[in-house]
Structure formats: C-alpha cells, structure tokens
Amino acid sequence: MLIQIRRATRAVLTAVVGGVLVVSVAQANQHERKEQVVAKVNGSEIRTSDLRLAADELASQIAAVQADQRMAYLVQYLVERYLIVQAAEKAKITETEEFKRRLRYYAGKALYDAYYRTVIKPKISDATVKAVYEKEIARTKPEDEVRVRQIMVRTEKQMKEITALLAQGLDFVELAKSRSISPAAMRGGDLGYFTKDKVPPDLKDIVFNLKKGEVSKPVKTRFGWQIVRVEDRRVRKLQPLASVSAGIRDLLERGKFREELAELRKQAKIEYLVPDAELPRGGTKTAPATSGGKPKNSQ
C-alpha cells in the first residue's frame, strides 16, 4: 500500500527540503487543479492537501524521521486521526459544548494561518529578497579567517617537552594526537577556521599575527599551556543568495505581518473586560510569539 501511496503522490509532493515536506508554488497550482487521494479510511479520503497541512503541523517531528519514511509517517498520522474523528462522530461529540468551544478556537486559528499564507507571504517577492541581500552584502566588510591547530598540555614542563620535540622535527599533527589534552587532539589539533571575534582572547593577537605555516611560542591560558600553528589564512566568503534567501524572506514576512497587525490594532475597538488582560505600559510582560511574528506552521 505504501508503494502505491508514493506513486500516487509523486507528481505533487516535492522531496524533503530543510527537513520539512513542502509543496512548491508550481506544484501547489497543479495540486489545486487536480488533488489526489492517497488513502481512504472507511470511505473518508486522505488527500495531498491533507499531507501538506499535516507536514506543516508536524514539522519538528518530521525532521527526526528518515527521509524515505516521512510520507508513510504523515499518512499513518492522518489515518489515526480519521479513525478518532469517525469514532467521535459516532459518539456524537459534535453536539457537546467542549467540541463547540474547540471548533470556534481552531476555526479562528485556521483563518489566522491561512491569512498569513495567502495575504502576507505573497507581499514579499523574490526581487525584494534579492534587493535586501544585495544591500547587506554591499555594506558587509570582508573578514580574515585563519585555520588553526593546537597542542594543549597541563604544565609548563610538558610544554617544554613539546617544543623540544618540535625543534627536533617531529610532526605537529602527530604530537597533537599523542600528547594534547584538547578535544581536538583526535583531529590532530585541528580547530577549523576562525574569524577574529571567535578566537579566545588569550590567543587572538598571537594567531592573527602568524603567517601560514608558522608556529607560535608557548602561551599560558586558563586551560593550560598551548602552542598553535596556523594552517591557512583566507578571506571569509560571503554566503550566496541561495543559502540565505529563506531566512531573509522569513524576516521580511514577519516584519510585514507586524506592520499589518499594528495597523489592524489602530483601526479596531479592543475592550479588556477582566483584570490583568491588558499589558501594562512599560511593563515586562510580553504577548505570545504568534502575536508579533508569523503563525506557527505557516511555511
């Protein structure tokens, strides 16, 4: 059955992007014209649109599921939901006050999320995202990076032994593996690339004054005695648009949402009828995150 489900939905479901199952704009348009049924529960249809909404709802859980099992995970989640829905209908839960209260609340949430998706998101175009990116890139100064290896020992005596062995021509990497107490010892002391603001204060001036291949003098730090070698120096590359566009778009959407919400507040008559309902001016209380940013699960 799972193979049939995968085949039936292949045309409209994308691969997993960033750990979340999503539908592209083009596929969404196709989906609107021809929605597919992927399973049935006692005759009730589970459709591709249900999968998309379930993927939004379960984004964090899906990220922990293996890629080739995510569709089955979503379908089984919806199968179980439909089983409970049908049992609830049989038990006439729809006639209870509890159901009516929840229906009113979740209907509002559905409108809230749909408004964000259909009204707010389209206001941020690809051209706007690109313009913001180019503006930020233009005023971002290139930063130097260094790649560093280190050998760390506890005592000055041990460090003197290390420097003597280096003077005899022993390999820095092998000494780091066999003598260093640093967690990076297994990597030959390789700490990777650092910009100046990421280097510990005790080593900042030393590291950035060394040329490629040079070894520092021993230095005492709060961790013990260290000696470092600069493996490489380079100018840090700026992130390409493709890798940061989603983050930029998210920030712009949140900003647009806050602007629109502020305007709606100005136009509305809001009455607070119970004590502590209204936030005090200048107080420290904060509203829920969704009141100042995008709704959850509104990718």
Topology of helices and strands:
Layout: H1 2-9, E1 16-17, E2 20-21, H2 25-33, E3 37-41, E4 44-47, H3 48-57, H4 59-63, H5 70-90, H6 97-120, H7 126-138, E5 144-153, H8 156-167, H9 172-179, E6 190-195, H10 201-207, E7 219-221, E8 224-235, H11 241-267
Antiparallel strand pairs: 1-2, 3-4, 5-6, 5-8, 7-8
Helix pairs in contact: 3-5, 7-11
| The number of domains | 3
Strands, count: 8
The radius of gyration computed from the alpha-carbon positions, rounded to a whole number of angstroms, is 29 Å
Estimate the mean pLDDT confidence. 84
Low-pLDDT ranges: 1-33
Give the H and E element order: HEEHEEHHHHHEHHEHEEH
Instruction: Count every helix, treating DSSP H or I runs of 4 or more residues as helices.
Output: 11
Strand order of the largest sheet: 6-5-8-7
Distance between the termini: 29 Å
What is the molecular shape? elongated
Largest sheet descriptor: 4 strands, antiparallel
What helical percentage do the residues reach? Answer: 40-55%
Beta-strand content bin: 5-15%
Structural class: alpha+beta
